[in-house]
Amino acid sequence: MQTRIYFMEELARLDRDILTMGVKVEENLRKAFEAFKTQDVELARDAKAGDEVVNALQIKIEDQAAMLIATQQPVARDLRELVSIFKVTDNLERAGDHASHLAKAAIKLAGEQPSRQIGRIESMVDICCGMVRGAVAAWMNHDVEEARRVAAIDETLDAERKAVVGEVIEFMREHPELVDRATRILTNSGYLERFGDHMTNICEAVVYMVDGTHVEL
Description:
- By secondary structure, the chain is mainly alpha-helical.
- The protein has a single domain (2-211), classed as Up-down Bundle (Methane Monooxygenase Hydroxylase, Chain G, domain 1).
- It has helices at residues 2-38, 41-72, 76-108, 118-141, 144-152, 154-174, 179-211.
């Protein structure tokens, strides 16, 4: 009985750390975009530094999950949950990297004229932040329906990315001398699109944890 109580307490601790990781990823993305929009280099550097916290949390969570697998010999759903944690933390870490890329772009573009696509990028950031909150909530609550709902939002994100591409191509035709800046916008909208893909991967991990089935959402 004591062993089971200990195991459940450790799972709860892992969930709290995953929640913290998700909150930090969203915070870093928000900071990175604000820096991108306002050309605030110091804020961009703060967002980049925040990625180190995300990386440290990944290591902490995965080490603890591995220890529980080795010492508690979990089976069935408990084992699926621990195995799925590695997918969740990996995708949160990768999403955090994309936030860091946006922060780097903010530093490189500081001092240049703001892009006309800033509104589209902001829309993508808002969608990404909603997806990370939803994906982590689905994980915390073992909520398959929420996981499917969040994964479906990725189509909206993809549509925004396509709109950005179309606008940037037109911008490059009008201003060929600004191709480098336009290319950075394209690159960063691509990072945000992949951010959404990582949230979808987390949602798939939720379905596997709860139902034991592998799905592509």
